[in-house]
Amino acid sequence: MRFVGNIIWFMCGGLWLAILWTLGGLLAAMTVVGLPLTRAAFEMAKLSAFPFGKDVVHIREIDQKELSAGTALTGTIGFLVNLIWAFSFGAILFIAYILAGIFSCLTVIGIPFGLQSFKLAGLSFWPVGRRVVTKEMADEVRRRNAVKKLNAIQNSAA
Asked: What pLDDT sits at residue 158?
């Protein structure tokens, strides 16, 4: 299903979405302020081209870094850039992807494509700090984080 879904998605607009996000990332790269959005735009382009079999995770879920001065600074900068993005282009893209998802879900055949539109909506609204990975990797990252949190809770109770 992933392969066929990705081919249909790519042919019915995924290519153009990926090109637009790549161009947006290149434009953002021309400014110092836009650099955090550059990586996010390229991640969005990757997901927009072939969304089936992919998931989105936060970078801190992947690297499992503890809170430090460096992670606090990058997290704060990412939050501020996401905030600016959300109140400008992010809200518009979010609404567009939500509407596309609703219209896709009106037919049984379109439901998988609608679900992908909803996934793209979340990333387009708050993109900085997110990474596109395979579903299997996302499941493994989440499993490891759950084990780590469970161990921390068990150790604090002991």
From this structure: 67
d(CA 61, CA 95): 27
C-beta neighbour count of 154 within 10 angstroms: 9
Give exposure, 49-63, as e/b (b: 16+ Cβ within 10 Å).
bbbbebbbbebbbee
Spans of the chain below 70 pLDDT: 158
Res 8: pLDDT: 93
C-alpha angle with apex 99: 14 to 138, nearest 5 degrees? 55
- Summary mean pLDDT of the chain: 89
- pTM of the shown model: 0.80
